[in-house]
Amino acid sequence: MRYRQIKVSGASVLFDSELIGEDCEQLFDLDWLAAHSQGARLERGKAVMFRYRDRDMVFKQYHRGGLVRHVAQRAYLYSRLRNTRMWREFRVLSRMREMGLPVPRPVAARCVSVPPLVYRGALITERIANARTVADLLTQRRLTNDEWQQLGTLIARFHLKGVYHADLNANNIMLDDSGRFYLIDFDKGEIREDLARRDADANVARLQRSLLKLRRKLPVFHYADEDWPLLEDAYRKAVAAAGGKLGSRVAEQV
């Protein structure tokens, strides 16, 4: 069985046995990570890059947002292990890769139950080689017309598979050196039986808002008003070519 689950030192760990073994608990140790990631600090919302067994990997610790973070920054209400955020993201990524969608490969997820009702944890994924976020890329150059169109078509491809990205923004889209786009960070993401049109449209609108926000915020950001219609038109054409239906698929268990 490729995906294995073990309990180590009171923690549950789900991992890809093709990539790592039962010693994977060490990858979640903060001292080990600091030693293997050039001393990177584990900060809220920041991914930590490290190398293990000749593979580049990314460590992400789950943090609470909003006012509740001042009380329990890394703890969440616990119901069942399969419903924890790291378990769900691991399985959503795994299922999307089976569907042929360009997302990071999940490596391991770790969850620690904190009695009586909370938990904390982290997720490790394989790093996408030679890739930069669209947000970072646009500080250096404009995307070509073809790249905007490719991105619109790709987002439609996810939506047609029923995939809902809870935070689609310019920092969660990557482009590698070969010209291939990827979507990342599927915390709270879902694969739905029926992805409603309004939710698909909200995903696309969220991306547009993030581009406009970055343009206002950064001194140099190569995003122009005429770029957006290229993405939007490609997205609409891809949906129309598929019969204009979103979510017309069998529900995936994640």
TrEMBL record:
EC number annotated for this UniProt entry: 2.7.1.166
Pathway connected to this protein: Bacterial outer membrane biogenesis; LPS core biosynthesis
InterPro entries noted in UniProt: KDO_kinase, Kinase-like_dom_sf
Subcellular location: Cell inner membrane
Source superkingdom: Bacteria
Swiss-Prot/TrEMBL catalytic activity: an alpha-Kdo-(2->6)-lipid IVA + ATP = a 4-O-phospho-alpha-Kdo-(2->6)-lipid IVA + ADP + H(+)
Membrane topology annotation: Peripheral membrane protein
Keyword Secreted in annotation: no
GO terms of molecular function: kinase activity
Pfam families, per the entry: Kdo
Active-site feature positions: D167
Protein family per UniProt: Belongs to the protein kinase superfamily. KdkA/RfaP family.
Name of the molecule in the record: 3-deoxy-D-manno-octulosonic acid kinase
Organism: Microbulbifer celer
Gene assigned in the entry: kdkA
